[in-house]
Amino acid sequence: MSVSDQWWFCLKHMRVEPEKGCPNKDRLGPYESESAAADALKTASERNKAWAEKDREWDE
Fold it and tell me: Which of 38, 46, 59, 60 lies at a 20 to 30 A Cα distance from 6?
């Protein structure tokens, strides 16, 4: 995957951006496709839920 094939989700503007966009501190990514970047918030939420479940299991 080349740099030009990377996509990001900008948290400041709440939209998908190509490699040239807002500073990385304001973005999630990189993602391999524009559609994967569009699902960035959903992906992050699913990962957070999975990690929270593993933490609960660890605590028991």
Answer: 46
